[in-house]
Amino acid sequence: MTDDIHDEFETLTSERLQSIFDATDYVAEDELTTTVLLALKLGRPLLVEGEPGAGKTELAKVLAEGFDTDLVRLQCYEGLAAESALYEWNYAKQLLAMQSGQSDGEASVFTEEYLLERPLLRALRHDGARPPVLLIDEIDRADEEFEALLLEVLSDFQVSIPELGTVTADVAPIVVITSNRTRGLSDALKRRCLYLHVEPPSFEKERAIVRRKVPELDAAVAAAVCGVTGRLREEPLLKPPGVAETLDWARALSALGDAGDPPLTESDIRRTVGCLLKEAEDVERLDDETVSALLTAANDSTA
After folding, report:
1. Which of 9, 51, 77, 93 has CA atoms 20 to 30 A from the CA of 267?
2. Where are the chain's structural domains?
3. Structure pTM?
4. What are the Cα distances from residue 97, in Å, to 115, 116, 157, 162, 273?
């Protein structure tokens, strides 16, 4: 299997990768396609940074779907510990075994039967036809100690379990690491990865995304939606809407009914604003003047 996988990635072309993106309705520009292609060919982790909702996590999902393999996701958070990322022992089951006399001693309860795999170990021990996509999501939310642990695992794609020995991946997983840039990452981690910065989408790109992901939405409404979200990102909001919010809003408007003339009204914006803005302070900023500016942006987008 190992040689077959290496051959598949070594012969992978940008055209083939682009076809995978197209088949999964992921709008990818040349820079993104090339960087992902190189990460696959070189077997390097891919570090993707950008604003929340820009499609970083979606990229990992698309790769898993496109290559017909499993997605193993590790969601990072403050205080993330090794046992939550690598493995831990099922202490309750171990204790029960010892109390019931099923165990002959301490050593016998440290076997596979009592081992709980967490995402990193699960990705290393994956036995599918293709390596899994390991998504390490929002690494910037974890602390520097966890970052050091991650470097150790990614250096050789192996982990040592004192009671069982060293576990080494037969084939290294496809690693996608995302960051929202809430803190700086170590130079050591950056050197280990290929880097991709995902910019907020242009109007044309976001409209293409909406048309692919919500094809049932009227074309004029789709254009108006992207005009409004683009204009909202110019406001000093606590949490500007990302592509994910744009798609939520597009689906909401589609569910509410057919387009009118004009395609978006003040009522449409105000009654569905919860799809776009997720902070009370941001909602309060939608005064009459701001809504008027949004409607102008919507009309200009459909002109």
Report:
1. 51
2. 2-87+115-198, 203-302
3. 0.86
4. 14, 16, 32, 21, 54
